[in-house]
Sequence to fold (551 residues):
Amino acid sequence: MAGRGPVWAPRGATLNARGWPQEAALRMLMNNLDPEVAEHPERLVVYGGSGRAARDWPSFDAIVRELTALRADETLLVQSGRPVGVMTTHEWAPRVLIANSNLVGDWATWPEFRRLEQLGLTMYGQMTAGSWIYIGTQGILQGTYETFAAVAAKRFGGSLAGTITLTAGLGGMGGAQPLAVTMNGGVAVCVDCDPRGVERRIGHGYLDVRADGLDEALRLAYEARDARRPLSIGVVANAAEAVPALLARGAEIDVVTDQTSAHDPLAYLPLGVAFEDMAALARKDPEGFTRRARESMARHVEAMVGFQDAGAEVFDYGNSIRGEASLAGYARAFDFPGFVPAYIRPLFCEGKGPFRWAALSGDPADIAATDRAVLDLFPDNEPLARWIRMAGERVRYQGLPARICWLGYGERDRAGERFNDLVAYGEVSAPLVIGRDHLDCGSVASPYRETEGMLDGSDAIADWPLLNAMVNVASGASWVSIHHGGGVGIGRSIHAGQVTVADGTPLAGEKIRRVLTNDPGMGVIRHVDAGYDRAAEVARERGVRVPMAGT
Ligand code: NAD
Fold:
């Protein structure tokens, strides 16, 4: 089961560990490294540049061993991907506590992080890589779908039909962009310097066609746009070259964003470097590479600003490319907004965020059963129903079958309890795990992304994700994690995650009710505290207690 070759999570209803919470952690760790799920499983890299599931293979083996033996009153401690202790706790305590990539403020820089990583002392956990609840590209698909739907609502009358979106990056997260655009009716031109990225997304049905160069890409894009036909087109090129080139030739682009791995300058291909030479050059001369990558990002961002000046809807998609361009001295880097203040914050005020679950059985029929349960629970939510139906038709599972949808305060707990009932009554064939991205309403401090431009200026206050993690530990989550640097890179974010297992027992039901109430409740509280009226309304209407707001 454990090893250096391909890793697949066990399927079915037979336990390998001593209980379902331990088994779930074991399967989800392995699922993160499933070759269908992980970007580079042989290096334990799941997604997002170098986001890992475990520090090294001996650590992976030891985690598997410990989870298999762990009792229901024990807790495994994981420090940046390495199991460092097992403690006696109690049955309400999480079975695993995880801290990844955390550094003291003044030391929280990429060079210091890399120095420590090379010494074997830490690893980069991204968000759901090191906390074992990554579900492949679908995870980001829903968020990306929501974002492009919000762009459509804001600028194009509710649909992207007849518009062209230009973006780059077809990796683990960015690979969701083409399908999210076509699900909203639009045309997407997606640039990636790695031909494998393009082929992989075509293979997964997320990208429609590959064009040979920018000319062909534009020709295909204009044809589809004029016919108001959804189409996604991949082009192999360096975005720092392609985006300025498209601007220079006056390409008719309506929306521009980017999801290259700009948060890590060693993962962004600089101008003048061949893709094949990238990894070796980054290893040989990290400082020189970083400088060249940042300069290239400045050219890339300058072209994005150029498109904005020409009237396009332009936004940063959470990869810190504006920050990097500004470090290279480009003065207008922050002329366009991040996607959270532009489109997502109103959802956060309602405690909404990326709720997700996976079927430990490995049986897609179990997810179909949960889909029906969600449709049944929220019959009046048409956008949710549209998503669930489209996801059922168009999303191909990677690894264990899973589903995601955005649910808010007062909704997640209902869904979770229903899922636990499905397990209890045998309507699914094995337990379900319920978790979420760290990119959520009350679980992250990230001034370039989730907490950019908070109303009260509290963007960098990182007490909230720590409180969030502690609340989830106190509420009965199955595993809880605190990470640093996910999404936007070292020094720029602190965030927390939780995963809770629905094994059909009354105890799981109790835990689920508390966790899935309190976890999104942190989002409502955080936004009430920052002065958002909608959050205060939600707190009043749905009974979230916020002492200083009198609710
Ligand atoms: P990834 O490492 O899997 O993929 C990045 C892709 O960018 C790769 O395919 C790579 O070939 C490509 N790339 C690098 N430099 C390029 C260049 N100069 N030109 C063209 N292509 C280039 O990363 P990912 O998981 O897809 O994440 C992408 C970024 O989005 C990260 O910075 C991540 O932190 C961020 N992110 C955003 C959100 C969000 O909510 N919007 C969520 C998660 C991650």
User: Anything to note?
Assistant: Residues 39, 47-49, 140, 143, 168-174, 191-194, 197, 238-240, 259-263, 267-269, 317-319, 439, 487 surround nicotinamide-adenine-dinucleotide (CB under 6 Å). The chain has two domains: 1-134+344-542, 138-337.
